[in-house]
Input
Amino acid sequence: MKNKDMTTAMKNSISDVLETMFFLSLDFSDDIDILELWNTGKDPVIAAKLSFSGPLSGYAVFCIPKKSALSITADFMGKDEQEISDDQINDTIKEIINMIIGNTFSMYDSDVVFDLGVPELVEFHDSIKGLPDSEKSFSVVIETMENYLAFQMNITNED
Amino acid sequence: MAYNILIVDDSTPMRAVIKKIVKASGFNVGQFFEAANGREALDILNEEWLDLVLTDYNMPDMNGLELVEEMNKDDHLKSIPAVMITTEGSRERVEEFMAKGVIEYIKKPFTPEQIKQKLKHIMGETEDEEQRYDNGDEELDF
Output
């Protein structure tokens, strides 16, 4: 796997999904450490994890402040924020990671099959590894809605 | 003609969004029905008059492909077009969908215009064969 190619596919996928389905405008913030983003613990952060297997195996994690997740879910469903339940927020976050990672692999190589697992909610600090970007782990941080969202992909096995 | 559409997805927000995008597309819808998995979908299909099924692939209990296979075992249900709406975009997986009776697939993310073109084509409202595998900037040439 070429880290640069996968990072490019992931960034293109993030833009594609968030702009097309969620009508968000976004910028990528390459110089931000995701562990330092929310280290104060003031703002609750929701994290969703999705495992995958195929030519590459591993998992991806998507992290988003709860405040942003509520706003995105309300817009996504066409409802007011007061009408949105925690279950709907969680389902939306899981749908986002599912769409983005599925789309990332299609963009990376549409000739191979990647099997995606079922997205699950996880604890932010347990799921994000403070590793430098490498061939096996890389992160993408996005600035949108005056806040940050982050993706991390960890490759545990490569055929 | 207004079409009754069954949306099958285990995600409540995704069902809401599909409904919103189909409405926004201007495609002529009579009534929407919703199911959270293939098994619920079969119950609704056996009780209501449906013209079209839009189903997710990955769902608990009975996934989208199993739903289509069950529909194809039934003389009445097999005449209802089933469309897979999925993040699965590999050529191999799409060919598997088509071989097992899925009439069309729509890859997430999608726009109202893309969904309108696909649905109109399926319901015979357009003859534009070039739209069949066209999903935005991606073309699958079988």
Q: What stands out?
A: Strands of chain A lie at 27-28, 45-53, 56-65, 115-116, 120-122, 137-144, 147-158. Residues 74 and 82 of chain A are 9 Å apart (CA to CA). Chain A has a mean pLDDT of 86.
